Amino acid sequence: MIGRAFDRWERSLASVDTNRVARPFEWGLDWVALGPDDEAPLARLTGWADATVRASDAFFRETADPGFDRQGESVRFASALQTPYPENNTVTIRVFEPAPKDAAGKPRRAVVVLPQWNADREGHVGLCRLFAKFGLTAARLSLPYHDERRPPALERSEYIVSSNVGRTLHANRQAVLDARRAVDWLEAQGYERIGIMGTSLGSCLAMLTMAHDPRIVAGAFNHVSPYFADVVWRGISTSHVRDGLEGHVTLDEIRACWMPISPWPFIDRIKGRPALLVYALWDLTFPVDLSRMFIAEFRRRGVPHETAILPCGHYTTGRAPFKFLDGYYLTRFLATRL
Description:
With about 350 residues, the protein is of the alpha/beta class. It has 12 helices and 9 strands.
């Protein structure tokens, strides 16, 4: 009975957004430097993806010192990847610093915060302020195609998750490289212990970042799944993206193409650093069986972790009282592990 109630509530909240667009399918091989799409695109892309997973350090390596410009709470810098959209090529992090009394007597600690897909500029700001109350500087990252980075032609931040396969790879790689540059800035400011936290899509990106940046000493992943493709294919928030993919690729094929931006291949790379895995019992966006599969794989591989289970769904995580419980789990973990 409770599950049915949350099912209705989740679907009702998901239906509020009426501007989702099912875009035409495109391989987008030019976004990953494979040239035009006209010859064996699937074989070329899956071969590239397999090689990229094996050489992921190079794929997620960012160049240092893009030139940081701080004005008030905002720090701006050039993205490590350039795109045809000028707005998207400048990254903003909003910095929320603790009061001196809250940080007194502790090492300088900071958290890079990656919000969910289609979060507006105020998304996760309340959580950032909560972190600051517990002595953690929060650096909230503007994801590619979000906030002021969104091109004027878009109503939603569709380009980071879409039926253009190559552009989705490019945008998520860009987000990881941007997050690593945020770590560069925090390190240059003298922060001694740096963590990362992400929600939904941000959770996937946060784990990819932590897996490829040893400076990150702890990670909190809020809604988890092993595969990027499976969430897109099965989640209620991305049914319009599946509409664009279906008939051109199968789930197995798109999973192979998007493996470089999936957490699954990189679980072992966070071993030895504290990790919190959060999932919701009635999640229709990150299906629960995927979350449990992911956590079971952590156990199977002997990767230490903590788990928190929310008695709600994906969208309802942002509603009272569940958002307070989620905030408690995330803040307690980061405040004690950093």
